[in-house]
């Protein structure tokens, strides 16, 4: 997909984006780094931010510990996303194509596959929540047609909302970057305004006299809260921060890309986290209900006059997150080398989301257990991948951000860089072996390095293996690259100057 599109950012009809994994040309670059804020804000301002606070608190932390651990986790992980997003304007490439610089053309397919799985897991979760929110809304408005005897929506109602949610998501995502940037700006304003009203209505449900009675958790539990916050927010975005920044001019200051990305992600979820922790600490019944049906448990607290419009806003907010994610997952399939159009990759994504949503809605016993287990399991690959890419940024900068390094061997790139792949493989195996899972199916794949005694320790249940995997990946790669000075054959500082001047074009396949 090497065709170019005209820059219609200043006006004119919105066209289907034809850029794929090729570098965006300078003629197509537009906008400023501040434009990154609404796209990340609209993604993270959803009601899920409250449930994240409830989940962090449920680890066994005090109010202060849960709030501070959550905010630290959000800031650190969002900052990492911001740093990786800088590669977008520098190269014009989506993140999972730029990682070829580090892992090689074919070697990059391993981390890209897991990044795609991570992305699709999020989309399955988000579209499922949007579908059930719409189904519960219909069940309350028209119980005779859409509700069972216990008040829950019928299966046909849930399936109908799922099909509608999926269709809307795919329709917008297939248009690509320009339409997404326009749509997300309006969604950010709408969801932000409605969230302020929601917060005002939720505050009376906090039992202020009951706050602060929970005992403090241990040090490892606290670190576990930080890790959980990182996996719920920032780490899941590491693999596509550059996807939305690559249309910015190449000289866009790195500090501004980092600031607007970090603030757009962390600001809304930090505010909602505080409210979620307060609710969980003062209302244990609500905390328990949110573990199985997060959105329904929280919207049940609202007066009916606001419940209806806010449910619609929740659906819009969730679908906005799904749209950006599906867009990036399509780029991930192209980065894997699948010779398909955007329409075909969209159809593949729809099929996978359908199977995943069926599992989450009709097979999984606990949303929280499955959600947390999925995040931790994928993070032991995605986390080290991002950490290794961050370490490699110095090398990429020294080589002039030459996009020809994303090509196949013989055309400026290489098939695989064993230093990066070894670091990632070692980190992923150790990380997976040191975490546990509350989902019985995922549990069989992890924790193999733990003894029966340590399997139930705070270290294991808090999934601190995620941090260990990131440290191992970054550390091993740093030693191999900068201490042992192992270089890829043919790429030295001397030849990099020549490559910068030649600037071979990036092949699309």
From TrEMBL:
Q: Where are the transmembrane segments?
A: 36-57, 63-86, 113-138, 158-175, 187-207, 219-238, 258-280, 304-336, 343-363, 369-391, 418-438, 458-480
Subcellular compartments: Membrane
**Membrane-topology annotation of the record:** Multi-pass membrane protein
Please give an example of a GO cellular component term from this record.
plasma membrane
Q: Which UniProt keywords apply?
A: Membrane, Transmembrane, Transmembrane helix, Transport
Q: Which GO terms describe its molecular function?
A: transmembrane transporter activity
Q: What is its main location?
A: membrane
Question: Record keywords: Ribonucleoprotein included?
Answer: no
* PANTHER family in alphabetical order: PURINE-CYTOSINE PERMEASE FCY2-RELATED
What family is reported?
Belongs to the purine-cytosine permease (2.A.39) family.
The name under which this protein is listed is: Purine-cytosine permease
């Amino acid at each position: 997909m090497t065709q170019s599109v005209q820059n219609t950012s200043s006006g004119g009809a919105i066209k289907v984006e034809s850029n794929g994994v090729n570098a965006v040309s300078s003629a197509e670059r537009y906008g400023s780094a501040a434009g990154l804020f609404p796209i990340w804000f609209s993604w993270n301002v959803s009601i899920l931010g409250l449930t994240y606070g409830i989940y962090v608190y449920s680890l066994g932390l005090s109010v202060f510990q849960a709030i501070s651990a959550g905010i630290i986790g959000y800031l650190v992980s969002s900052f990492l996303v911001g740093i990786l997003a800088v590669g977008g304007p520098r190269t014009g490439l989506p993140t999972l194509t730029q990682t070829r610089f580090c892992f090689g053309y074919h070697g990059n397919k391993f981390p890209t596959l897991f990044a795609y799985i991570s992305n699709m897991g999020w989309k399955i979760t988000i579209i499922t929540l949007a579908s059930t929110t719409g189904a519960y809304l219909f069940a309350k408005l028209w119980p005779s047609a859409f509700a069972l005897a216990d008040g829950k929506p019928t299966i046909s109602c849930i399936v109908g909302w799922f099909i509608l949610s999926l269709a809307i998501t795919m329709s917008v995502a297939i248009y690509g970057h320009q339409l997404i940037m326009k749509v997300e700006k309006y969604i950010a304003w709408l969801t932000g305004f409605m969230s302020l009203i929601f917060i005002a209505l939720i505050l009376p449900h906090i039992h202020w006299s009951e706050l602060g009675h929970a005992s403090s958790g241990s040090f490892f539990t606290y670190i576990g809260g930080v890790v959980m916050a990182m996996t719920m927010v920032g780490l899941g975005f590491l693999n596509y921060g550059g996807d939305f920044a690559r249309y910015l001019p190449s000289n866009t200051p790195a500090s501004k890309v980092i600031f607007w990305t970090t603030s757009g992600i962390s600001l809304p979820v930090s505010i909602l986290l505080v409210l979620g922790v307060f609710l969980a600490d003062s209302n244990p019944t609500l905390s328990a209900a949110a573990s199985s049906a997060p959105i329904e448990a929280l919207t049940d607290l609202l007066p009916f006059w606001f419940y209806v419009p806010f449910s619609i806003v929740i659906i819009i907010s969730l679908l906005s997150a799904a749209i950006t994610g599906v867009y990036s997952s399509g780029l991930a399939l192209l980065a894997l080398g699948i010779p398909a159009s955007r329409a075909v990759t969209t159809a593949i994504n729809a099929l996978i989301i359908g199977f995943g949503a069926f599992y989450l809605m009709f097979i999984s016993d606990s949303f929280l257990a499955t959600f947390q287990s999925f995040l931790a399991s994928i993070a032991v690959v995605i986390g080290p991948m991002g950490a290794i890419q961050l370490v490699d940024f110095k090398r990429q900068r020294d080589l002039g951000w030459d996009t020809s390094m994303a090509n196949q061997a013989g055309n400026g790139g290489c098939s695989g860089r064993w230093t990066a792949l070894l670091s990632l493989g070692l980190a992923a195996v150790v990380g997976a072996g040191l975490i546990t899972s509350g989902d019985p199916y995922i549990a069989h794949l992890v924790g193999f390095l733990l003894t029966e005694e340590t399997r139930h320790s705070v270290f294991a249940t808090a999934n601190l293996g995620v941090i260990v995997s990131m440290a191992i990946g970054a550390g091993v790669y740093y030693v191999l690259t900068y201490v042992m000075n192992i270089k890829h054959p043919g790429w030295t500082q001397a030849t990099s100057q020549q490559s910068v001047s030649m600037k071979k074009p990036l092949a699309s396949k």
